[in-house]
Amino acid sequence: MAPVEPPGGDPVQEPTDVKYYPSDEPVRLGLEHFNRGNYGIAQRYFKDAVEKSPKDVTAWVGLAASYDRIRRFDLADQAYAQAIRLGGETVQVLNDQGYSYMLRGNLSAARRKFEKAYSLDPGNPVIANNLELLNGSRRFIERPPNNQP
User: Fold this and answer.
1) H or E segment and range at residue 94
2) Taking the model in full, what pTM does it have?
3) Among candidates 111, 79, 77, which has minimal Cα distance to 95?
């Protein structure tokens, strides 16, 4: 007697038959925690996401932004570099890099990144706000020349 195929098809799939679609769960959870201000937890989820799906630009940008917020700028730079290799210098990456430099106090590099992002998307309110924030930061820390040690 031949084996009978169960209703609904064969429950056992050969590895070559399985189509793998990476789960967005780590990215979704990373974004959720990032938006709540839980940057360390977000970083763990984004790291998991890039390990599972190394070509996911969103995961790399999320990982870089999370590293920025926990002040691991060395790792943020690596994650931004990977995002750029995969997706190019997008408006989001340029804006996020600008914010990263602003967090570090490198206002000149921040301005270059924000201005490049703004040139690609002049109507973007987030970039305009970041430029305004940068201008406020610059005014706050600039000192007159006679205030030298």
Assistant:
1) helix 91-104
2) 0.77
3) 111
> Which is higher by pLDDT, 23 or 6?
23
Distance CA 104, CA 102 (A): 5
**Separation of alpha carbons 45 and 143, rounded Å:** 42
Cα–Cα distance measured from residue 68 to residue 142, given in angstroms and rounded to the nearest whole number: 24
> What is the total residue count of the chain?
149
Side chain identity, residue 9 = G
pLDDT in tens, 23-78: 789 999 999 999 999 999 999 999 999 999 999 999 999 999 999 999 999 999 99
Lowest-confidence pick of 9-18, 39-48, 92-101: 9-18
3-state secondary structure of 120: helix
Other Cβ atoms within 10 Å of 84 Cβ, number: 18
Distance CA 77, CA 108 (A): 17
- Provide the 8-state DSSP code for 5: P
> Which residue has 């399985």 as its token pair?
18
